[in-house]
């Protein structure tokens, strides 16, 4: 069937394309600019002559970063944080969302827990009580100070709960007739059908841990325990002289080949690489409808 395209429809499509292209460029241009700065010579970056194309192409900034033990230590702290925090957050989200997705007859206290979750979603104790709690629990300067406070995200629980409630009731009823328990229904039936929701929540949890820098500054007394984003935030506030003296440079010539802007750009771009890799991998699950067709009439 041939689609009828009126003048209004054509104008609407053109406006949409313009908006999408503008949004794409607003995300892509800063990334290209940072990449160009990281590959440019120190004299060009200090003179603000670099826009979207590298000038005086050099790999000196990346060679410097490869020898920067503080950067890689912070990178390792963040990897550890992700390895612990993402599975923990996903597990707690699933265990909270599944019972909340049930009807009142199966979970009588559902409304109480829903009100409790919504209350803590809107209100929080504040920075000082949270800091005192972390301190009293002896979690300062440990990975748990970065992981446990972000372990339960009510927004993710609501997303997962709504997805579970969208799964046809007949699937669970047929499993109950066959003698399956609730934990079997959750792990064997619901989770395989919830891959799009799990992928979305995994990405949200990953981004939350990856982009968080304030907790590292608050709960870590030693700079050697900073996660990557806290380290980068500290780098962005440092002067060029501090950056150049932070590592052992082998010669004056190597110092002259690198500037503070080069180092910042190189470290920022390296920190973006995991996101550029993982986001397209999970993107395909967002619009997948795995529940469709699971119940035959």
TrEMBL record:
It is a multi-pass membrane protein. GO terms for cellular component: plasma membrane. It comes from Murimonas intestini. The keyword Mitochondrion does not apply. Belongs to the binding-protein-dependent transport system permease family. Keywords: Cell membrane, Membrane, Transmembrane, Transmembrane helix, Transport. Residues 71-282 form the ABC transmembrane type-1 domain. This is Aldouronate transport system permease protein. Its main location: membrane. GO terms for biological process: transmembrane transport. The chain crosses the membrane at residues 12-39, 79-100, 112-131, 143-164, 185-207, 265-282. Gene3D superfamilies: MetI-like. Pfam families: BPD_transp_1. It is found in: Cell membrane. PANTHER family: ABC TRANSPORTER PERMEASE PROTEIN MG189-RELATED-RELATED (PTHR43744), POLYGALACTURONAN_RHAMNOGALACTURONAN TRANSPORT SYSTEM PERMEASE PROTEIN YTCP (PTHR43744:SF9). It comes from the Bacteria.
């Amino acid at each position: 069937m041939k689609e009828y395209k009126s003048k209004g429809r054509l104008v609407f499509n053109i406006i949409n394309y313009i908006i999408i292209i503008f949004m794409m460029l607003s995300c892509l241009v800063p990334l290209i600019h940072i990449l160009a700065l990281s590959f440019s010579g120190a004299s060009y970056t200090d003179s603000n002559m670099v826009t979207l194309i590298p000038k005086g192409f050099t790999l000196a900034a990346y060679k410097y970063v490869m020898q920067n033990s503080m950067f890689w230590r912070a990178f390792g702290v963040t990897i550890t944080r992700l390895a612990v925090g993402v599975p923990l957050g996903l597990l707690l989200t699933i265990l909270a969302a599944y019972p909340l997705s049930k009807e009142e007859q199966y979970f009588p206290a559902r409304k109480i827990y829903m009100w409790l979750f919504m209350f803590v979603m809107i209100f929080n104790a504040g920075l000082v009580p949270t800091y005192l709690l972390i301190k009293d629990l002896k979690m300062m300067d440990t990975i748990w100070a970065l992981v446990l406070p972000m372990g339960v995200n009510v927004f993710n629980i609501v997303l997962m709960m709504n997805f579970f409630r969208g799964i046809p009731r007949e699937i669970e009823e047929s499993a109950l007739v066959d003698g399956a328990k609730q934990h079997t229904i959750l792990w064997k039936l619901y989770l395989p059908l919830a891959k799009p929701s799990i992928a979305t929540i995994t990405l949200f949890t990953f981004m939350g841990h990856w982009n968080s820098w304030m907790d590292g500054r608050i709960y870590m007394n030693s700079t050697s325990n900073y996660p990557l984003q806290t380290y980068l935030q500290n780098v962005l506030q440092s002067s060029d002289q501090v950056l150049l003296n932070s590592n052992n440079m082998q010669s004056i010539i190597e110092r002259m080949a690198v500037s503070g802007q080069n180092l910042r750009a190189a470290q920022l771009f390296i920190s973006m690489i995991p996101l550029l890799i993982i986001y397209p991998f999970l993107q395909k699950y967002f619009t997948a409808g795995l529940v469709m067709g699971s119940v035959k009439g």
